[in-house]
Design goal:
Elements: E1 14-19, E2 47-52, E3 57-61, E4 64-69, E5 85-90, E6 94-99, E7 104-108, E8 114-118, E9 126-131, H1 136-142, E10 145-153, E11 158-164, H2 171-192
Organism: Bucorvus abyssinicus
GO biological process, one term: regulation of COPII vesicle coating
InterPro entries: Sec12-like, WD40/YVTN_repeat-like_dom_sf, WD40_repeat_dom_sf
């Protein structure tokens, strides 16, 4: 029960806090030199996500602010304090968020790019969110989806939010498409300007 870290994260109460899991982008545990915490890989390196009553949701690397989330960045014209974050969870890969209005979102943990958002999924305060565990059984339950987030709200409902697998092109196909585009461009220029080559 030794305190590892203490810092002021928010003005007022903290609604929720999440630590990144072991062996992910979050918490790395290793012996510290002379018992001193450090983020150089030889000691404790914590990634912490906090949601506070001050309308802020922040990502911290130990006690240093990495970035703050802004729920209204894509909704111009709505006051900053119309809504606030209520709950947060960090799977190491994804960040799951619930709001007072019942909205649920999933972000990429390292870039905070929003991948999934359901406005007022519950229509009332989301009291907790949790990812399916990244165990063998958890992967079986995902059924081909990248992540699954459970949300619970004051409406006494639990909802499952599935993040479909993002399709990506193999690198060889991407290179082939680029080469085809270059050849097509050269042929079109040759047709438009005879003697181009």
């Amino acid at each position: 029960m030794k305190m590892m870290l203490e810092f002021k994260a928010h003005d007022g109460e903290i609604e929720d806090i999440a630590l990144g899991p072991d062996n992910k982008v979050g918490v790395r545990w290793a012996p510290a030199p002379r018992g001193q915490p450090s983020c150089d890989g030889r000691a404790v390196c914590m990634q912490v996500v906090t949601a506070g009553r001050d309308f802020q949701c922040c990502v911290w690397q130990r006690d240093q602010l990495v970035t703050g989330l802004h729920w209204n960045e894509n909704l111009p014209g709505i006051p900053d304090k119309a809504y606030r974050y209520q709950a947060c969870r960090d799977s190491g890969t994804f960040l799951g968020l619930g709001t007072v209005t019942g909205s649920v979102a999933i972000h990429i943990a390292f870039s905070l790019q929003r991948l999934y958002y359901v406005k007022e999924a519950h229509g009332i305060v989301v009291t907790d969110v949790a990812f399916l565990p990244e165990s063998r059984r958890g992967r079986e339950l995902l059924a081909g989806n990248e992540a699954a987030l459970l949300s619970v709200a004051v409406d006494s409902r639990c909802k499952l939010h599935l993040l479909p697998s993002r399709r990506s092109l193999p690198i060889w196909l991407l290179l082939l498409l680029c080469a085809g585009l270059i050849v097509a461009t050269i042929l079109l220029l040759q047709l438009a300007f005879p003697g181009f080559l």
